[in-house]
């Protein structure tokens, strides 16, 4: 079971603005907040997300093929999370829409550091 996922950042304040907005839409907030590390989620809740300056002091970089998927409650929330991402320094990787069959609906975006995320739902 995944407890949380960590993204490297080169600008913790910029990452904080981006993930504060995403977390607020998903009904959660910060659960840990340090000078070089911030985590969003709930203790003993579902998996959370963290942004951190790399421990080794080297620049953060994006993982090729790495993506974190955020489970939205419905299609409207997928659309909203995509809008929030772009309004807070994120970039487009695929506008909201149906993907394949079985009701999978998703939007793809990158955070300001270039880490790839998607918001999805399998509901109608």
From TrEMBL:
Gene3D superfamilies: 2,3-Dihydroxybiphenyl 1,2-Dioxygenase, domain 1 (3.10.180.10). It comes from Henriciella algicola. Pfam families: Glyoxalase (PF00903). Residues 1-122 form the VOC domain. This is VOC family protein.
